[in-house]
Structure formats: C-alpha cells, structure tokens
Write a structure and sequence with these properties.
This is Glucose 1-dehydrogenase. It holds the Pfam family adh_short_C2. It comes from Actinomadura vinacea. With about 260 residues, the chain is of the alpha/beta class. It has a single domain, classed as Rossmann fold, CATH 3.40.50. About 45% of the residues lie in helices and about 15% in strands. The protein has a 7-stranded parallel sheet with strand order 3-2-1-4-5-6-7, sandwiched between helices. Helix 1 packs parallel to helix 2, helix 3 runs parallel beside helix 4 and helix 4 packs parallel to helix 5. The longest helix is centred in the middle third of the chain and has 28 residues. It is globular and about 45 Å long. The protein starts with 7 loop residues before the first strand and ends in an 8-residue tail after the last strand.
C-alpha cells in the first residue's frame, strides 16, 4: 500500500487479535511499528513475530487509563524511530470482570461504566491528544479508532461498551472536522464478530450462531479482515477519506 513503507505507527492494543494482526500487516508493508499493550508478553510476542518476518517493531507496556503511561508510549516511539505518522487505537478491557458484567442499563454497575469509559473512551482521548501535536508538527498523519457494531444501537446488552463506542465515533469525527485541513485524517472501524483470541476463549456458541443468522456472509470475522482495512485507512491510498466510520462485519448490519 502506498505511503506505509518507512513510516512509523503506534498500535495501542497490539498484543492480540485485531491489534496484533494489524501490527503484523503494517510491518509487512514496510512500516515501523510500536506494539503497545498492558499485556506486555503478548506485545513482545507480536514484535518478535514481526522481527522474524524481517520487519521492525518494539513492544511497549502501557495502560490506556494512565496519562503518564500514554506519554511514555509516544516518547519511546519517537526515541526509537525518530518520528510518528499514525495511530491505531484498538485497546479495551475485555476481562470477565468488566465486559462480562456489562449487560443492560439496570444490571450494569457503575464501576463497569467507569472502567469502560476510562479505557475505551478516555484512553483514546489520551492517545489522540498525545500524538496530535507530533502529527501536526510534521504536516499531517492518520488516526484510526476502533469502535464496534454495537455503537449502531442494535445490541440489547453491553450498554456501557456500546455507549462508549458511540462516543468514540463522535471523537473520531471531531478530530477530522477540526484538523482535516491541517493534514490529519481520522477514521474508525466498527467490527462485527471477529474471532480473535479473546472471542475464541469465550467460545460463546450462542453469540456466534446469532451473528451468523443475521449476517450475509459464509463465515465469522478474522483479525486479518480488520488488519487490511485499518492498514488501508492509515496509508496514502486513503488520503481522500476522512471522518468516516466503516462497519466491517459481514453485512449483519446494512447501513449507508
């Protein structure tokens, strides 16, 4: 893809799943990648696979809910690669103690709301605020945020996650509206059911069957499906795409 080779990208949440797949795809296109994650062993494994394939990547332990940690993630990237050209936000707290307790409005405790907002919304605010000055200084760059098909409002459960993802959609558009004319592109992806490591471990057969019943496709999603789209949006191939939220989910939702 045009405009990836030799450029540097941060993948905030690159230890597993979509983040790992995107890290490897970007590196395969010749980009330098910082694989950031609270799961440092997973991030290191991703970086090692990239190195074994002939690419260049570093693993950095960081926490989306911690301001200092986010600043250090950006600082390590600049120190290692000498520049920064884009950001992919994909981190979230998918632990059973958080997403597993995220149900309907009357069933979801406030601590789940607070944790989800702190990681999946304010975490993205932190990373975007940290990278934007550097992208603006160099005359432009690209940000891609991970939302969810749940932000479309058709999931009766996961109220905190889905409301947070709807806010991510607006954050993404806000960046495009304010800094698009300065060369900043800000887009988002709204994945359907993607069979990454966490989803496979959950092995929720009822959820998988429900998705396939609604979908217009022959299979469930794979991290590579998102990796190719995100890499495209970060590349110069997508230089006339800005402020858009792309649903990638086997047409389980049909939308304009």
């Amino acid at each position: 893809m045009r405009g990836l080779r030799g450029k540097t990208f941060i993948v905030a949440g690159g230890a597993t799943g979509i983040g790992a797949g995107t890290s490897e795809r970007l590196a395969g296109e010749g980009a330098f990648v910082t694989v950031g994650d609270i799961n440092i062993s997973g991030a290191q494994a991703t970086a090692e696979r990239i190195a074994q394939a002939g690419g260049r990547a570093i693993a950095v332990e960081f926490d989306l809910s911690d301001d200092k940690s986010v600043q250090e993630l950006v600082g390590r990237t600049l120190a290692e690669f000498g520049g920064l050209h884009g950001l992919f936000n994909v981190g979230a707290d998918l632990s059973p103690g958080n997403i597993g307790r995220d149900r309907s409005l009357l069933e979801t405790d406030m601590d789940v709301w607070e944790r989800t907002l702190d990681v999946s919304l304010l975490g993205y605010v932190r990373t975007c605020r940290a990278v934007l000055p550097h992208l603006l200084e160099q005359g432009g760059g690209s940000i891609v945020n991970t939302s969810s098909s749940g932000s479309l409002g058709t999931d009766p459960s996961h109220v905190a996650n889905n409301a947070t993802k709807a806010a991510v959609n607006q954050l993404t558009r806000h960046i495009a509206v304010n800094w698009g004319s300065a060369g900043i592109r800000s887009n988002g992806v709204m994945p359907g059911l993607v069979m990454g490591e966490t989803t496979k471990q959950q092995n929720d057969l009822e959820m998988q069957a429900s998705f396939m019943k609604a979908a217009r496709t022959t299979r469930l999603g794979d991290p590579g499906d998102l990796a190719s789209v995100v890499s495209f949006l970060l590349s110069d191939e997508a230089e006339w795409i800005n402020g858009q939220m792309w649903y990638i989910g086997g047409a389980a939702h049909l939308r304009q």
